[in-house]
Inverse folding.
């Protein structure tokens, strides 16, 4: 019974150290950064590169460069795969892969994975997160990412 009590205390103590790591990305849109190919009336591929600013919930901030592609199946769904390199104020950096399969091009929820991390972010490598994106008026987008960290 005493060992079970220790396990219960350890489990609750361990989980109390888990926290959410949140990052917000602020993108602007420039049509010159898009290559668009319409295969049919129903299928369009958009390749893009974009820059943004970001900030997290622990006081870090920096710049991000992204490149990816966005396949639109009209009246069905949209597929996105994007890679972003982020650098913070101290020149630490990490690379995130974003993926999304949703019914709406302007809003959606997807998954992101830290595929490379250096400096203070080295322990983030292979961390999987969820994110939500909202595009507005073809002028920009905001991505909010949440990661469970232990």
């Amino acid at each position: 019974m005493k060992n079970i009590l220790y396990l219960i205390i350890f489990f609750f103590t361990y989980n109390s150290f888990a926290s959410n790591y949140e990052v917000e990305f602020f993108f602007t849109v420039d049509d010159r950064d898009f290559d668009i190919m319409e295969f049919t009336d129903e299928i369009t591929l958009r390749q893009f590169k974009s820059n943004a600013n970001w900030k997290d919930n622990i006081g870090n901030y920096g710049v991000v460069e992204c490149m990816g592609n966005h396949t639109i199946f009209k009246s069905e769904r949209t597929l996105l795969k994007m890679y972003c390199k982020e650098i913070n104020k101290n020149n630490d950096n990490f690379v995130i892969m974003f993926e999304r399969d949703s019914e709406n091009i302007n809003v959606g929820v997807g998954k992101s994975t830290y595929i490379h991390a250096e400096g203070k972010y080295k322990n983030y490598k292979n961390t999987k997160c969820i994110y939500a994106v909202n595009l507005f008026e073809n002028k920009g987008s905001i991505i909010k990412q949440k990661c469970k960290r232990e």
About this structure: The helical segments are 2-16.
